Amino acid sequence: MPKLKTNKSADKRFRVTGTGKILRGHQLNSHLKSKKKADRIRRHLEPVQLDGGQKAEVQRLMPYGKN
Q1: Residues 6+ apart with CB under 8 A from 19
Q2: pLDDT recorded at residue 67
Q3: Residues 12, 58: contact at Cβ < 8 Å?
């Protein structure tokens, strides 16, 4: 059976924890921060866990992330 390739764009956007959870970052946090509230910017620094169909799709793109 041939090796499966990891989707590199998914590899850069998502992180798989040791227990198999998939974490993603927040959108709208790269520039134009001067008009955003400080607590909003801080909230967006924390990663968020994927669930449901999103998790299944990312697992397909990253076959060697822990499932």
Answers
A1: 66
A2: 63
A3: no
